[in-house]
Amino acid sequence: MAAVPATGASVPGRPPVEDIFDRLLALHPKLIDLSLDRMWRLLERLGHPERRLPPVIHVAGTNGKGSTVAFMRAVLEASGQRVHVYTSPHLVRFNERIRLAGRLVDDDALSEALARAEEANEGAPITFFEITTAAALLLFAEVPADVLLLEVGLGGRLDATNVIDKPLVSVITPVSIDHVDFLGETVAAIAGEKAGILKRGVPAVLGRQPAEALKVIERQAARLGVPLTIQGEQFQAYEENGRLIVMDEDGLVDLPRPRLIGAHQIDNAGLAVEALRVAGLKLAPDALEQGMKSAEWPARLQRLGPGPLSQHAPEGVDIWLDGGHNAAGGQAIAAALADIEDRVSRPLVLIVGMLGSKDSGTFLAPFAGLARELIAVPVPGDHKAQPPEEVAAAAAAHGIAASTAASVAAALDGLRDYPVGPPPRVLIAGSLYLAGAVLGENGSLPD
């Protein structure tokens, strides 16, 4: 995710939206009260756009939210429906967060919505995510669409998106440890925050959950009379003979294997299919099949194509990019790369940069015995990143040979001295911020 500028005067040739971002960031409260009061106040002044939205599917969870949304979007669009999508963070441009009826919001529409939210806010303290979410809801309310896929930004209970009264269905992807400073230090505590999106009587579909997370979510669902459909219980998703099988009490669906790579995408695709079934949305006969074939989600085991950055690598090097940054993400990525290694063997080199708030040791542990080498790099931009030396030390603690480089480009340049043998397979990972910088530098802009 490219950094949104923190402060600064207008610069000639700079998009006006960037000046609005500067002003909105300056409103960030010095002390954050954990409530939705700021959102409710602003939404009231904007005429309550949250009450004028298309039918909503609300998605929370730790891992797999974006991929699950991507599968749902692909299926719905294959069925001819107009789909709004709200996701975060962005990788290269803020516009990626807001998709209006199938297209990324343009700068003019975004600037107008942000200006209206800024005017209504009247200079009151508010977080950047809150006020930009309010602007997004304004756009979603005023542009016609059939469905809004609304992804939680952080947690759920007090997230700025949690102002929706009655979604079609609530979805909670697998819960694991992440953002402990905000959500708690245990899976149970984090699950409690995610379960905060559940609404009285509204059905919910759950991805595979650790036992301690499932217990918490089930308790909250029982309080609110929420019918639960749980992966591994009420429905199953698995691969069989290179196909995706999704089975529930209504029958079995036999689909192409998802386009997105990795065994974890079988679960994400199955969750998406089941959520759409529970939502009761009418789909064209071949929409599920077409959606599995066409779904895209950048920086999730994405092969990096030709570009200014990838040209730094020697000929034949296979470069992959993933924004994964927590323990569960590391496990999923390592499993996917192990599967690729079984089919086409190459030495694996990791290029990793991580934020200071992340646990590099738990992320890297699954790569022990799989990765030949790790090169730690800084995360570009104004971020509280881990020093590359700390990431390298965490890798070394797991028996992975480790070094540092000044940038991803420098790390790729260094591969020119790689020992004789098959060209290495490279994974660039550890942070969505790093992934966004890589895509931007390579000219691979999400659309």
UniProtKB/TrEMBL annotation:
Recorded metabolic or biological pathway in which this protein acts: Cofactor biosynthesis; tetrahydrofolate biosynthesis; 7,8-dihydrofolate from 2-amino-4-hydroxy-6-hydroxymethyl-7,8-dihydropteridine diphosphate and 4-aminobenzoate: step 2/2; Cofactor biosynthesis; tetrahydrofolylpolyglutamate biosynthesis
GO cellular component: cytoplasm
Pfam families: Mur_ligase_C, Mur_ligase_M
Domain Mur ligase C-terminal: 315-431
Mur ligase central domain segment(s): 59-273
Domain of life: Bacteria
E.C. code: 6.3.2.12, 6.3.2.17
Catalytic activity: (6R)-5,10-methylenetetrahydrofolyl-(gamma-L-Glu)(n) + L-glutamate + ATP = (6R)-5,10-methylenetetrahydrofolyl-(gamma-L-Glu)(n+1) + ADP + phosphate + H(+); 7,8-dihydropteroate + L-glutamate + ATP = 7,8-dihydrofolate + ADP + phosphate + H(+); (6S)-5,6,7,8-tetrahydrofolyl-(gamma-L-Glu)(n) + L-glutamate + ATP = (6S)-5,6,7,8-tetrahydrofolyl-(gamma-L-Glu)(n+1) + ADP + phosphate + H(+); 10-formyltetrahydrofolyl-(gamma-L-Glu)(n) + L-glutamate + ATP = 10-formyltetrahydrofolyl-(gamma-L-Glu)(n+1) + ADP + phosphate + H(+)
Entry cofactors: Mg(2+)
GO MF: ATP binding; dihydrofolate synthase activity; metal ion binding; tetrahydrofolylpolyglutamate synthase activity
A biological-process GO annotation: tetrahydrofolate biosynthetic process
Role according to the record: Functions in two distinct reactions of the de novo folate biosynthetic pathway. Catalyzes the addition of a glutamate residue to dihydropteroate (7,8-dihydropteroate or H2Pte) to form dihydrofolate (7,8-dihydrofolate monoglutamate or H2Pte-Glu). Also catalyzes successive additions of L-glutamate to tetrahydrofolate or 10-formyltetrahydrofolate or 5,10-methylenetetrahydrofolate, leading to folylpolyglutamate derivatives.
Similarity comment text for this entry: Belongs to the folylpolyglutamate synthase family.
PANTHER family: DIHYDROFOLATE SYNTHETASE-RELATED, FOLYLPOLYGLUTAMATE SYNTHASE-RELATED
Record-given protein name: Dihydrofolate synthase/folylpolyglutamate synthase
Species, as recorded: Ancylobacter pratisalsi
